[in-house]
Amino acid sequence: MSETGQPIKSPCIEVCALDDHNVCIGCYRTADEIIDWFAASDDRKRVILEAVQRRRTASS
């Protein structure tokens, strides 16, 4: 659970398609990060979300 006691929300927006770099065009997670999400600890989810933010910023 997050610091607020709530589960960390997945960045998935249900636009699921991988680009040529194996990154989802909807949520900006790699295929491995998408697979990891379901069993990931909150710390791992935070790391994934930080990577998502960097990719999203770099693409805009």
Structure overview:
By secondary structure, the protein is mainly α. The chain has one domain. 42% of the residues lie in helices and 0% in strands. The chain has 2 helices and no strands. It is globular, with a radius of gyration of 12 Å. The model has no long low-confidence stretch (mean pLDDT 93).
Q: Helix fraction?
A: 40-55%
Over the alpha carbons, how many angstroms does the gyration radius reach? 12 Å
- What number of domains? 1
> Can you give the mean pLDDT?
93
Task: Give the beta-strand count.
Answer: 0
List the helices and strands in order.
Answer: HH
Termini separation comes to 30 Å
What percent of residues are in strands?
Answer: under 5%
Largest sheet: number of strands, sense, barrel closure:
none
Q: Overall 3D geometry?
A: globular
Ranges where pLDDT stays below 50 over 5 or more residues in a row are none
The number of helices is 2
Given helix and strand content, the structural type is mainly alpha
Question: Mind sketching the topology for me?
Answer:
Blueprint: H1 31-37, H2 42-59
Short recap of the structure:
The protein has 60 residues and is mainly α. It has helices at residues 31-37, 42-59. The protein has one domain (1-60).
